[in-house]
């Protein structure tokens, strides 16, 4: 496969260049003095200052952050339960429908999910009076529903890769299922939960379409404000905002990556020690 | 025979299980029901039932009220309820050319975008899977990272790149390739760029996880038997990566059909896409019943691909369990 090396480098360069050049251009032009986003007029941080004085954006960002934190947490809780059910329970009644219900939100066009949730909320309000009006609560419910699907996929695939004999050993030693889950399973799949939370958080922070359907007057999230601004054309303070968001995400992902790598190292070391101990035992048995 | 299979057998035979299955049997039913039913009920209430309501409202009359539709159930007399189904909204979809054209155009645009994602994503995933394990992890992180940054802002970035005095046009003029800026923003080209850009990670990840597992000795065997690298690729790698290709294509195609943000920010204002039509019916015309009918028609088209994707994912998970 040596002959393919140039091809490999080219694929990587083209692919990653395509992924990163637009993001890089956003960041570079956020430090542009000129109001014309694509004409370089010298270095300046004035758009960051302007951003901090824009009350509409700040309010929307605060709402979005709260919604994202709450819905990501709920989504991880529900998604972990769903992932456990799908990965560990074998066939059970209604499994096919359940599996379909966890897959469909991943790919369902957002206009459909948004419209259907709005109609549900309107109907529920007519029938039982809850949720009264639309706002943060309805946005959170909507976000939990579509982000938990992503968490479920991550947790399910982590659980299927995991060595089940650890759980079996704990149960052989008398631990009850709930204890096995909290002492054995949860620590092992924790990196998956962390990346699931991060993904749910960013998906929630980012969602425009579903949110537009289920948000009420006065509950504009950050993407809704950005969208209405962007429709009128590019503006440099949006670039500044993008740079801040990209930086936060990059730091979050980097921290998660380091945590995961460290855990992997500890796991590898433990496995090696166990193996070594095992071999010693075999040796001593042979001698004895 | 895999461990999972042995356990499955033990579970089926009553009394024949080992200690583990006894434990499972004694403790899990109550806990299990609880674990599965919480997310199950949530999804039933907030994902499945809403579609029933959409279906119901797609059969109702539009009205100037809040909510802007008439109830299906009429009390004809004191005790006789009358259900009035109004097929007008669907007839409207069939008769009006706008809807047909939007559906066909959306499917076409989504199909072309999926193909482009595959053409760019396959070499990328292949190159990632053939790198050394250490590089592989870094590349994987790099491929996932854009997935974590704002989709809306990534689409926005392309406005700055593609507009008439944007980076791409400026660069081409500076290089002397063109004299006048080319109109790129508000064209189909811009929509394809935005689609491929946004959906590429959905294509690369399933392809990568498939190609990473490929047994390289198969390629060696093919080479020993006289296959050239390209022949080996076509006869061994490509067929074996078919599940990854299918999963990636479905993950791109299904959401792309109903895409709203990309065509409305990058495309021509007159571009017909079904996601935009639904949005306009709902927000601008405030015609909820027609918007519901559009959603139902789109859903009927997507139900089979979604079911197929679910099946493919379950198969992949079982594979992972066995391996």
Q: Short description, anyone?
A:
The complex is a heterodimer of chains A (288) and B (323). With 288 residues, chain A is mainly alpha-helical.
CATH class of the largest domain in chain A: Mainly Alpha
Rounded radius of gyration of chain B (Å)? 26 Å
Q: How many domains is the backbone of chain B divided into? A: 2
Put simply, the count of helices of chain B is 14
Roughly what fraction of the amino acids of chain B lie in strands? under 5%
- Quote the average pLDDT of chain B: 83
Task: Give the overall silhouette of chain A.
Answer: globular
Unreliable sequence segments of chain B: 1-17
Low-confidence segments of chain A, ≥5 residues, pLDDT <50? none
Mean pLDDT of chain A, to the nearest integer, reads 86
Largest interface: A-B, 107 and 102 residues
The CATH homologous superfamily of the largest domain in chain A is named MetI-like
Assigned CATH class of the largest domain in chain B: Mainly Alpha
Helix content of chain B: over 70%
Q: What summary fits the major beta sheet of chain A?
A: none
Shape of chain B: globular
Termini of chain B, distance in Å? Answer: 11 Å
| Quantity of strands of chain A, as a count | 0
H-E order of chain A: HHHHHHHHHHH
* Helical amount of chain A: over 70%
CATH topology of the largest domain in chain A: MetI-like fold
Descriptive labels:
heterodimer; A: mainly alpha; MetI-like fold; 11 helices; B: 323 residues; mainly alpha; 2 domains; two-stranded antiparallel ribbon; 14 helices; 2% strand; disordered N terminus
What report would you give on this structure?
The complex is a heterodimer of chains A (288) and B (323). Chain A has 288 residues and is mostly helical. Chain A has 2 domains: 54-233, MetI-like (MetI-like fold); 236-288. Chain A is built from 11 helices and no strands. Chain A is globular. Chain B has 14 helices and 2 strands. Chains A and B meet through helix 1, helix 3, helix 4, helix 5 and helix 6 of A and helix 1, helix 2, helix 4, helix 5 and helix 6 of B.
